[in-house]
Amino acid sequence: xxxxxxxxxxxxxxxxxxxxxxxxxxxxxxxxxPCPISIVLLGLDLQxxxxxxxxxxxxxxxxxxTQQVLAVLAxxxxxxxxxxxxxxxxx
Length: 91
Prior knowledge:
Structural class: alpha+beta
Order of helices and strands: EEEEHH
Oligomer: single chain
Shape: flat
Strand content: 15-25%
Strand order of the largest sheet: 1-4
Helix content: 25-40%
Radius of gyration: 20 Å
């Protein structure tokens, strides 16, 4: 494991501190991941930097439109949970 040597002169914040998120609360959907995420894909160590995903509308959504958005998101999230290595290999 590599060791990190701290300099004696300057006081810098620890590298594991993250900036504040970008969500304001008035979005339809906001996902804020202010710190990079380490992932392994096909044996490769990668860092995903995805500070903000924001879905908003200039005009307000009707109740029907809100239900449509929620249904799509529920289906998307449900599908993410059902992906397995065997189902990927079969495609």
